[in-house]
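Why EF-hand domain-containing protein? Reviewers of the renewal asked for a concrete example.
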Amino acid sequence: MSSYKPNEYSANATAQASSAGGAYAPTNATADAQLGTWFRAVDTDGSGQLTVHELQRALVNGDWSPFNIETVRMLVNMYDSDNSGTIGFEEFKGLWHYIEEWKGCFRTFDHDRSGSVDRQELHQALVAFGFNVSPAFVAKLIQKFDRYGTDVNSNGQGNITFDNFVQACVTVKTLTDSYRAIDTDHDGWIQISYDQFLDLVVRQRA
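Here is what the prediction returned.
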C-alpha cells in the first residue's frame, strides 16, 4: 500500500496548527530522544520491535481515544520495510513523522477544532486533494469510518476521528490509483474482467 502523503498541504498546515490535540512528538531537535522514550515505553517485551497492538498503545486521537486497529495495521504495512510484521525504532520514526504531516492536514480541515471531521469537512479535504467525489460517496465514507457506528442517523455521530480520516484518505488514494491504471484513455469509465476486479480488491487490502 502506498504511503500517501498530503504533501501539498502538510507544510502550511503544520505551521498553522496549534499545540492542542493528542500526544504527538515534537518536531524539533529533541524529537528523536522523545520518540525513543515513547518507543521503549510501549515496547513491553523489550524486543526492540513494536507489534501492531504495542504500536496502537503509542497512538491516540485528539480526544485521547486509541487508534483504530485497522488504521494501525495499515501504518505497519506501510513502514515495515523488512516485512517482519513489526516496527523497529527507525521505522517508527518515519511512521511518526508521517502521522505528524497528516495531523497538520487534519487540523486544516477540522474547522471547529472538534477533534473530528464531519461530512462537509471530509468532502472539502478530498476535493482539495484532487479527488472528484460526490457528497453521496462521502456520506458512505462517513458511515464506513465513523467509529461510533455505521448508521449516521441513529448509532453513529456522523463524523470521523483523526485515525479514520487518515485511513479513509489513503484508501481513496489507493483505489483511485488502481482505477487510473486501468482508465488508460482518462474518460472516467472502465470495463474490467472479474479477475481484474479481484486483483484491484486484493491489492488494495495488501
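Residues 131 and 165 are 15 Å apart (CA to CA). This is the kind of structural detail the renewal will allow us to pursue systematically.
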